[in-house]
Specification:
Immunoglobulin-like; Glyco_hydro_27; glycoprotein; binds 2-acetamido-2-deoxy-beta-D-glucopyranose; disulfide bond; EC 3.2.1.22; 444 residues; secreted; TIM Barrel
Length: 444
Amino acid sequence: MLTPRQSLANMLPLSLLATILALASLAHGGSNGLGQTPQMGWSTWNAYGCEIDADIIIESAKQLADQMKPFGYEYLNIDDCWQAAERNAQGVLEANKTRFPDGLKAVVDQIHDLGLKAGIYSSAGTMTCGRKIGSLDHEETDAQSWADAGFDYLKYDNCFAQGRSGTPQFSYDRYNKMATALNNTGRPIFYSLCNWGEDGPWNFASTIANSWRISGDITNSFNREDDRCPCTSVVEGDCNTQGYHCSVEKIANFAAPLGQKAAPGGWNDLDSLEVGVSVGEGLTLDESVTHFTLWSMMKSPLIQGPVFADLSSQDRAVLTNEHVIAINQDPGSTPAIRLQSGKQQVWQSTLSNDSYAVALVNFGESKWDVELPLSEVFFDDRKLAKASWTAYDLWSDTDFQNPPRKPGQSKLQGMSVQGKLPRVELNPHQTRVWKLTPKKHDEL
Ligand SMILES: *[C@@H]1O[C@H](CO)[C@@H](O)[C@H](O)[C@H]1NC(C)=O
Ligand SMILES: *[C@@H]1O[C@H](CO)[C@@H](O)[C@H](O)[C@H]1NC(C)=O
Ligand SMILES: *[C@@H]1O[C@H](CO)[C@@H](O)[C@H](O)[C@H]1NC(C)=O
């Protein structure tokens, strides 16, 4: 089978192909070997914002290791506001001594001792978004100090960029400086590029980064329209104000055409998960399930952000649905494609072992009664449409009151389907997702 990049190569004119191959030979992020599946972890930002310190981070790391690591969440990412007020005499950016009395390395060592990996944050600007010191034009020094402290991951933001954007080349050059600096440290450091989708990073970042944000920041709302997130599409060339306060529904719609741009080593980042986050409007259970299912199927990074002490069983159950996580982490799965848009959506992912995931998503405000023919799921393959399948309803066995502490305890019952999916009635904002595995391979 062709990988997405090989099949792309088959379709491109030779001159363009030569350019792409030339770019690929300069690859760093894509060639650090990381991100073969989307990254999973937890970030300080949604839980604590700028109010972080070593104690909060170590306590959160213990909870992450205990509650979430068994399900695959491995990165403990320190977001903004760790920095000292000034660079030191050698130009090195150290941690705020009040917040990190023993420095960053001591914290990273404890994170590693818990079996986790450690992430750090900066901006490709003179200042970060929280108005701390940024890394623009200090890439080599900062990358080296993070490598020395043992970091495994960098989220690299886009505030105070000094106007060095506006064309893919400007943005590429600014972000590539950090890719090169990270590579030069010799330490494999996951590179999470966060330029909010400016200049279409899905077209320029795959050779340098392991993931790239596609839009302005997510907010903790399912569908609230907000003028601070003004774009209607991120691919039409008219999105000059990426903004922030983008809802779950809006980002899902932004991401729909971009699946073809992601592949092992470089992923579309739909931004962090709002499940269990207390700041903001909040999500209902159906909305959390929809959010988590779509992010998983689109192979977005799964970076969560609750205060663990406040996390409800219900939200923990959503974040630890091993069957949905398995779609996201399947080494052979492809980012979902959307087969039906509008308020009642149908999404399909190709999985390993000739299997598929199919989601029905009701963004509407009334119930959706639906019995979907498989000819619509497999509209371009009549054999698949006619084949017989075992269908597993991936949320049917979830115990929202007492979610399991470890994977392997939830056992789904499959049902035979042929010709159509089971008839379901979806509540407003609800999602149902099935995994389809072939019953007879000779039918395919
Ligand atoms: C640096 O880049 C080279 C070639 O692009 C790659 O082979 C190597 O693994 C990279 N090293 C790190 C530490 O990312
Ligand atoms: C360092 O931390 C202290 C204590 O939280 C805080 O008051 C101060 O503003 C921080 N400095 C910077 C530059 O963030
Ligand atoms: C595919 O099938 C093989 C053999 O049964 C199994 O070991 C593997 O885990 C399956 N892969 C996925 C991603 O489910």
